[in-house]
Amino acid sequence: MKILHTSDWHLGHTLYGYDRTKEQMSMLNQIKEIIKNEKPDAMVLSGDVYHTSQPSATVQRMFSDAIVAMCNACPTMTVVMTAGNHDSGTRHEAYHSLWRELNVYVIGNISRENPDNHIIEVPGKGWVVAVPYAYERNIPDGFFQDLLAIVGERNTDDLPVVMMAHTTVEGCNFTGHDMTGQKTIGGVDAVAHDYFGDGYDYLALGHIHKAQFIHNTEHRMRYSGTPMAVSFDEEYDHSVSLVEIDSRGATPRVTEKSIVNPRPLVSLPPEDATTWEEAKQLLKDFPNDKPAYIRLNVEVKDFLPAGANEEAHAITSNKECLFCHINTLRPERERKQGEALTVQELQEIAPIEIARRYITNLHVEFDEDMEAMFNEALEAINQDDNK
Question: Which residues contact 34 (CB under 8 A, 6 or more apart)?
Fold first, then answer.
């Protein structure tokens, strides 16, 4: 069985007010070309198709046109898509019947009463067990294992079994994401390796943007990562994963297929921060004809000079690059208790850290129970936003 594993397209994402439609269309076209050349038996898209739960009609049309083009590139391919924490599960399933005509399966919500909604047979090739993102309390105990048990009974030819999930797994490399607690990344609590049960050959994960295998899982548990960077902190290669599994129980073979962004995200300098004057010079020296989004890493003791953003925009006015943001970093210093946050720091800091500082200022201990309640309340708010 050959599958193309991808996730976290985040269609509709804008970067500091800049529209990214051309880049996203380039990404989708590259994936289509990979499908055309590789002829996979299935493509699994493990959540976060869209960046928001209410994408515009234009973004939805871009998505549907791309899926049709991908299906036309390989008419025998089965497509399985699940909703992520950025998606609306209900919206995801709105055109379920129409998609089925193209051999496309969309799974947006947990179906307790009808587990067959989560099981897709790829005739003669294998099985896909598709579970969308859901708040943990909404997933019945043992749900993953129950689905795998059903497939185990039906899989009389010992064909490969692929499972899909959109969540945080303990031990993952979350570079590029905010960690909002000891085990919470991107607003999603981490689960242990054994949470998914036993009986799959490959677990196609979504949510974490860095492509990676989860350690100590015999190359069976993998994040494909996002094909296109969503933030400047995602300073690594982006790709989709081509996965080949010879038979039930065989070790998957994975090949990363690179996706090139025509307008990459570039930090100046790329690592440590520098002075404002040196950062301006780096911006002036950046090639005039090179498309890119630019973030400046600037070390400041107090404040940036007045009009710094306007000055940076002026420097790039005749360049192909687009200035986005000055990332201000302070030198080694200890923040005094109760010291006010800057607007930028307030935007970038994790909600739980703001709550922790507030509680500390009240001279109350922010213990594990309080942290758990805060994370649960935050997750409930996110769930309501996705409805």
Answer: 4, 240, 242, 257
- pLDDT at residue 280 above 60? yes
Regarding whether 339 and 231 lie in a shared domain, the answer is no
Residues 203 and 313 in one domain: no
170 half-sphere exposure, CB direction, 13 A CA radius: 9
Angle CA 222–224–229, to nearest 5: 140
pLDDT tens-digit map of 94-113: 888 889 999 999 999 999 89
> What pTM value is reported for the model?
0.84
In this structure, are residues 184 and 178 in contact, taking their beta carbons and an 8 Å threshold? Answer: no
Tokens 């790329």 locate to 270
What was the pLDDT predicted at 218?
A: 78
First-last CA distance in the chain: 35
Cβ-based burial of 301 (10 A; exposed 0-12, middle 13-18, buried ≥19): exposed
Report yes or no: 85 and 381 within 8 Å, Cβ to Cβ.
no
pLDDT at residue 68 is higher than 60: yes
- Backbone dihedral angles phi then psi of residue 271, each to the nearest 5 degrees: -125, -95
Q: Where is 166: in which H helix or E strand?
A: strand 161-166
What domain count does the chain have?
2
Find, among 86, 166, 158, the residue nearest to 131 by Cα: 166
Residues 6+ apart with CB under 8 A from 25: 62, 66
